[in-house]
From TrEMBL:
InterPro entries: FAD/NAD-bd_sf, FAD/NAD-binding_dom, Ferredoxin-NADP_redctase_2. The keyword Flavoprotein applies. It catalyses: [thioredoxin]-dithiol + NADP(+) = [thioredoxin]-disulfide + NADPH + H(+). Residues 4-275 form the FAD/NAD(P)-binding domain. It comes from the Bacteria. The lineage of its organism: Bacteria, Bacillati, Actinomycetota, Actinomycetes, Streptosporangiales. GO terms for molecular function: thioredoxin-disulfide reductase (NADPH) activity. The keyword Flavoprotein applies. Transmembrane segments: none annotated. This is Thioredoxin reductase. Keywords: Flavoprotein, Oxidoreductase.
Length: 301
């Protein structure tokens, strides 16, 4: 069994950022990563100072190289579970012993079950206008969904284009919502959606069940966020009314020695935000370990 000060579960921006800080603090740190980042379908990421336009895979590759350069161990694999005392079991049979655990396993996006949605996700079916709005600025855009959140999303997307339509699909908009949409020249296309239409590997529009076709260059949707929280749940971490792990500003959970960062803690965190959360968690974890080291030294004295 290998022993570490910290095992980081998840090797995205949050996990690698934390591992970098901890390795530079001369902590023994291991990062276990399943190799399935949430933003893998996206060709580029945006809004990350000095790295705007980077391919997500290139950022992760650079981060892994930096962590390894300071002695951090990178393990490609899946965590089967974490036993009391922080024995991290991997699915390949290996086991890691940790003084502290940081969970940065992200989340899953639950998307509408419509033809074309999965295939275009992260390409021209988009979620975050701050991440992709500028790239589709001034083009004919759509927002899919009839919830209050979808209406808010349409109002937000309107910042990037004067030509925005909302497709409520199977939802119902209130008179007040329609009035607000009309006030900013956001059109409403009622009726169930059949599919996203793709021509030559490019989204061309939205087809409704009644056969109508509405040309659009990109479609925005607000998915349902589901945390990848098996480890947190198994460790008994408290959750809030939405089902997300409760943590303080540094990512400390209700279970002593367990931290959380990135999209596993905040579903709206962008890449740069997740990296910052990882850094903050690492600093707090190191301080916690120092306090532990002091107490151990006093006990031995």
């Amino acid at each position: 069994m290998s022993e570490y000060d910290v095992v980081v579960i998840g090797g995205g921006a949050a996990g690698l950022s934390a591992a970098l800080v901890l390795a530079r603090a001369r902590r023994r740190v291991a990062v276990v990563d399943a190799g399935a980042p949430r933003n893998a379908p996206a060709a580029h990421m945006h809004g990350f100072l000095s790295r705007d336009g980077f391919a997500p895979r290139d950022l992760l590759a650079a981060g892994r190289e930096e962590v390894a350069g300071y002695g951090g161990l990178l393990i490609d694999g899946l965590v089967a579970g974490v036993d009391p005392g922080f024995q991290v079991r991997l699915k390949d049979g290996r086991s890691l012993s940790a003084r502290r655990v940081l969970v940065t396993t992200g989340l899953q996006d639950e998307l509408p079950d419509l033809p074309g949605v999965r295939e275009r996700w992260g390409r021209d079916l988009l979620h975050c206008p701050y991440c992709h709005g500028y790239e589709v600025r001034d083009q004919p855009l759509a927002v899919l969904g009839g919830t209050a959140e979808a209406v808010q999303h349409a109002q937000l997307v309107r910042q990037w284009s004067p030509d925005v339509l909302i497709f409520p699909h199977n939802g119902m908009l209130t008179a007040g919502q329609r009035e607000q949409l009309a006030a900013r020249a956001i059109g409403v296309v009622d009726g169930p959606v059949r599919r996203l239409v793709v021509d030559d590997d490019r989204l061309s529009g939205v087809e409704l069940e009644d056969g109508r076709f509405v040309g659009r260059a990109a479609v925005f949707v607000r998915p349902r966020f589901v945390p990848n929280d098996d480890v947190l749940v198994s460790l008994g971490c408290a959750t809030d009314e939405r089902g997300w792990a409760v943590s303080d500003d540094t990512g400390r959970t209700s279970v002593a020695g367990v931290w959380v960062a990135g999209n596993a803690a905040d579903p709206r965190a962008q890449v740069i935000t997740a990296a910052g959360m990882g850094s903050a968690a690492a600093i707090a974890i190191n301080a916690d370990l120092v306090a532990d080291d002091v107490q151990s030294s006093l006990t031995r004295a």
